[in-house]
């Protein structure tokens, strides 16, 4: 006979636990229903963009611009980036259009969002006419198993139902190889590569072999000489843990994972692409001469501070468009030479630019704009300024001046949105941009802070007329620094 009494727990404790479990069950069902309602809302937004662009002669471009504009409108309300919303709209349309039964089961609380994501993930490799059968069988699996246990079964099910062989699909999959970066806490990032499994295993095996060579070469006798290959392998990247592995420092106690990461960084930062189609004769070719370029903002006091000093004492050292970096790395870069990075030193209190430095010939106005903007100036976008386009707030063709008071960095995506959609922008004194959405909502974007101030939309009724791309006259503005 079933009993809901937990041994060793009082009757009152059992009653409380039973109430908590019942609440958890009810909350989970309500949460699933709310999540599915959000998915259906986002899918409607995607369908709206398609419908509004359907009558245009330039349907593809109009649909893309309309989708960007709608995504930006929703992003302002949901307090996230328009890129994220556009990705979510695409995911929502996939669920609504291709997996309606999955949504129904999710909405009823029979499966979770994780189950629905797995069904969409593995179903994506199947042609459209095979997905209905896959969905029915996949839901049956998910009803009985947790997402972790269902993953393998769903993967095998998709393979069984696919009309093409794995070998045929691998040829197409190779064209999707890529490299990406995911930001992590504490000044770290994750480099992600998508390569054929054979190459990935081979790369990892080679890194492991070199790491083992470093471990084997560690000498227990001070001053013991290493062979050229071992000595080269043991030297870590000058940009990673510099100064911790020389003969006068602490013994090398890096783990295998640390050594693998250091060896990989060394090879990528110092090697040249030998399989270079532009090689002419014995030279390394144009690709071999390419070096990475980053933009770093360093408060002046950080150059004099200690590694263990609180961030408030030295200011935040920002790898523009990405995340903070540690003071020691910034100081090493400040003393380094080369053409692959730019230094921007800021006032430790006001943040005003004290000094910029570049090894390339760049106009003073460009240096000022990069230091001021740091990233794309559309609300929520963090694309680094060095990868953006400099846009005239008032178009140059309409008389807009080439002046810091009329210029701002926009990534290609948001530059196109400004040009081809109903989003409008005007530049206020101090480089502040005031964006007005097609519905009349206003977003104020400041150059020195990622904070976006939201101004409530007008009362119900026709949207307020969007202002033209006109920058107000600012006779009291300080002159441009050039």
Blueprint (SSEs and pairs):
Layout: H1 11-53, H2 59-78, H3 82-98, H4 100-107, H5 113-123, H6 131-144, H7 147-161, H8 166-173, E1 178-184, E2 188-194, H9 197-217, H10 228-234, H11 256-270, H12 285-288, E3 294-299, H13 311-314, E4 318-319, H14 327-334, E5 341-346, E6 353-357, H15 364-373, E7 389-392, E8 407-410, H16 412-420, E9 424-428, E10 432-436, E11 442-445, E12 452-455
Parallel strand pairs: 3-5
Antiparallel strand pairs: 1-2, 3-4, 5-6, 7-8, 9-10, 10-11, 11-12
Helix pairs in contact: 1-2, 1-3, 1-4, 2-3, 2-16, 5-7, 6-7, 9-10, 9-11
Describe what you observe in this structure.
The chain is of the alpha+beta class and about 475 residues long. Helices cover about 45% and strands about 10% of the residues. It contains 16 helices and 12 strands. The strands form 4 sheets. It has a 4-stranded mixed β-sheet with strand order 4-3-5-6, sandwiched between helices. A 4-stranded antiparallel β-sheet has the order 9-10-11-12, with no helix packed on it. Strands 1-2 form a two-stranded antiparallel ribbon. Strand 10 and strand 11 form a beta hairpin. Helix 1 runs antiparallel to helix 4 and helix 9 packs across helix 10. It is globular. The N and C termini lie far apart (about 85 Å). The C terminus is likely disordered.
């Amino acid at each position: 006979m079933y009993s809901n009494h937990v041994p060793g727990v009082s009757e009152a404790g059992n009653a409380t636990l039973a109430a908590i479990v019942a609440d958890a069950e009810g909350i989970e069902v309500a949460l699933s229903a709310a999540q599915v309602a959000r998915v259906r809302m986002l899918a409607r937004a995607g369908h709206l963009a398609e419908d509004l662009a359907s009558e245009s002669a330039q349907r593809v471009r109009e649909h893309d611009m309309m989708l960007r504009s709608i995504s930006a409108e929703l992003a302002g309300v949901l307090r996230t980036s328009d890129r994220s919303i556009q990705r979510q709209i695409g995911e929502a349309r996939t669920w609504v259009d291709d997996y309606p039964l999955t949504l129904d089961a999710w909405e009823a609380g029979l499966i979770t969002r994780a189950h629905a994501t797995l069904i969409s993930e593995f179903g994506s490799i199947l042609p459209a006419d095979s997905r209905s059968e896959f969905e029915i069988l996949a839901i049956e699996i998910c009803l009985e198993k947790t997402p972790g246990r269902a993953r393998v079964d769903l993967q095998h099910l998709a393979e069984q139902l696919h009309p093409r062989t794995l070998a045929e699909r691998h040829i197409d999959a190779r064209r999707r190889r890529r490299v990406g970066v995911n930001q992590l806490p504490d000044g770290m990032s994750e480099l992600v590569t998508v390569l054929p499994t054979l190459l990935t295993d081979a790369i990892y095996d080679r890194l492991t072999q070199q790491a083992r060579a470093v471990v084997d070469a560690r000498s227990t006798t001070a001053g013991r000489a290493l062979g050229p290959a071992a000595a080269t392998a043991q030297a870590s990247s000058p940009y990673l843990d510099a100064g911790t592995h020389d003969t006068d420092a602490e013994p090398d106690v890096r783990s295998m994972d640390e050594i693998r990461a250091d060896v990989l960084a060394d090879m990528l930062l110092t090697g040249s692409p030998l399989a270079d189609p532009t090689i002419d004769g014995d030279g390394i070719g144009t690709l071999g001469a390419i070096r990475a370029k980053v933009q770093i903002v360093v408060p002046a006091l950080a150059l004099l501070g200690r590694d263990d000093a609180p961030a408030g004492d030295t200011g935040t050292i920002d790898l523009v468009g990405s995340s903070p970096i540690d003071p020691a790395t910034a100081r090493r870069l400040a003393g380094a030479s080369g053409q692959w990075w730019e230094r921007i030193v800021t006032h430790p209190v006001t943040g005003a630019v004290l000094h910029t430095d570049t090894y390339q010939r760049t106009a003073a106005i460009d240096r000022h704009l990069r230091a001021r903007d740091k990233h794309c100036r559309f609300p929520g976008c963090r694309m680094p300024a060095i990868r953006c386009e400099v846009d005239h707030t008032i178009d140059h063709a309409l008389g807009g001046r080439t002046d810091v008071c009329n210029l701002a960095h926009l990534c290609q995506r948001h530059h196109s949105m400004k040009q081809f959609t109903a989003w409008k922008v005007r530049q206020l004194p101090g480089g502040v941009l005031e964006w007005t959405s097609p519905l009349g909502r206003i977003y104020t974007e400041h150059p020195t802070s990622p904070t976006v101030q939201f101004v409530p939309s007008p009362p119900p009724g026709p949207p307020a007329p969007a202002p033209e791309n006109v920058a107000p006259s600012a006779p009291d503005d300080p002159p441009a620094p050039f």
